[in-house]
Amino acid sequence: MTFYLYPVIKKISHPLLLFDAAGLSLFAVFGTVKAMEFHINPLAAVMLGVLTAVGGGMLRDVLVREIPVVLRTDIYAVAALIGAGFIAIWMYFGLALIPGSIIGGLSCFIIRLLAIYRKWRLPISKYAD
Fold first, then answer.
1. What span, in angstroms and rounded, lies between the C-alpha atoms of 50 and 52?
2. Residue 60: is its pLDDT beyond 60?
3. Is 128 contained in some domain?
4. Phi, psi (deg, nearest 5) at residue 70
5. Average pLDDT score over the chain
6. How many domains does the chain have?
7. By CB neighbour count within 10 A (0-12 exposed, 13-18 middle, 19+ buried), where does 103 fall?
8. Which domain holds residue 64?
9. Largest Cα–Cα distance of the chain, in whole Å?
């Protein structure tokens, strides 16, 4: 459907970015929580949470023949890293799961939305072409 509906999707890209930010935060938290439930090292759990969150967006971008957001200067994986890191630390100390998941997810979501609307970018090398 993406191939045939691309002109429509392009016109409504701003609302889609909102849902993309929500999906990013949910998958970052769920991926990290699932890894922590299997007693994986917290650092590895964060990496799995980020990979879970970023993977879907990369697949979407590849399907519509765009450079994946995570490979551009957008703050995308960094937002997922912050949300996943928060929930991993929260669970490491044995605190209640639901409040930590909400705070971790909201932190990722808010950082991503701020990055979109304020046009925050990651720095690039001055030697890049």
1. 5
2. yes
3. no
4. -65, -20
5. 89
6. 1
7. middle
8. 14-117
9. 48
